[in-house]
């Protein structure tokens, strides 16, 4: 956790609004200054949306296919020309301007896909985030001589949680399926192979497996900011770390949203 910008950098990965406002609306990134991690470049969008990539294991069929019947009957814009249409669709899912105040307006689908793909990893490049980072600084407090995270930090996620709670998982899943060719194209541009919908389900399952600690977790000062005293927590992925740092109440809310989103995504 870096002492800058809340001691860490937020990685908001819109995982529920396009599969972004629910899992990403909360994904938090540890500032990697202490180990020198570098940010990967944002994938360059191309104008073609055809051709799903082969699976990483050579599989030609997706585990969780998106039914073509759910796809849009209207022609989709090319990925590099899709920002206006995507932005309008996302804002329509939340019915007010809260999401607009958080969302970055360029390369939206590519940012979502790159962020979601990185959630189970140890780092996420700040240049691919789909949401702006929260304001304020990360705060710690003393508890029986130990450093623990201040409860005031939870307040910094208020707007993000507000947006996540207002998104209807059924509506978000339907919107996502209609625009799935754009998401698949952005995923292919990452060069990882496979199908984005399979990766999305995998990432949701990973976030649902995040620990649910009882009580405050001890922190220890590091070269930059603080780290968990317990190595098991410090070694968690960036996505799972955020899930436990939003607090027990918010974690429960997010997991309920993710379960509903997962069910809607895999439904026939």
């Amino acid at each position: 956790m870096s002492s800058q910008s809340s001691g860490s950098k937020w990685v908001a990965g819109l995982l529920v609004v396009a599969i972004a406002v629910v899992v990403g609306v909360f994904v938090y990134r540890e500032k990697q200054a202490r180990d020198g991690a570098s940010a990967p470049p944002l994938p360059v969008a191309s104008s073609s949306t055809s051709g799903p990539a082969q699976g990483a294991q050579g599989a030609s069929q997706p585990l969780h296919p998106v039914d073509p019947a759910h796809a849009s009957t209207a022609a989709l814009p090319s990925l590099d020309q899709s920002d206006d249409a995507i932005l309008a669709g996302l804002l329509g899912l939340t019915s007010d301007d809260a999401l607009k105040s958080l969302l970055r307006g360029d390369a939206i689908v590519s940012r979502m896909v790159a962020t979601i793909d990185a959630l189970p990893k140890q780092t996420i490049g700040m240049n691919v985030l789909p949401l702006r980072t929260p304001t304020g600084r990360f705060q710690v407090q003393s508890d029986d001589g130990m450093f623990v995270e201040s409860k005031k930090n939870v307040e910094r996620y208020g707007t993000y949680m507000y947006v996540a709670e207002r998104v209807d998982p059924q509506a978000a899943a339907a919107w996502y399926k209609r625009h799935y060719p754009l998401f698949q194209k952005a995923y292919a541009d990452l060069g990882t192979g496979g199908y984005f919908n399979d990766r999305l389900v995998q990432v949701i399952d990973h976030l649902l497996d995040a620990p649910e600690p009882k009580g405050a977790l001890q922190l220890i000062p590091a070269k930059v900011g603080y780290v968990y005293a317990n190595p098991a927590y410090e070694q968690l992925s960036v996505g799972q770390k955020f899930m436990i740092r939003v607090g027990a109440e918010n974690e429960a809310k997010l997991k309920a949203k993710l379960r509903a989103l997962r069910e809607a995504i895999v439904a026939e």
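The CA atoms of residues 28 and 241 lie 7 Å apart. The chain has one domain: 10-138+156-214+239-266.
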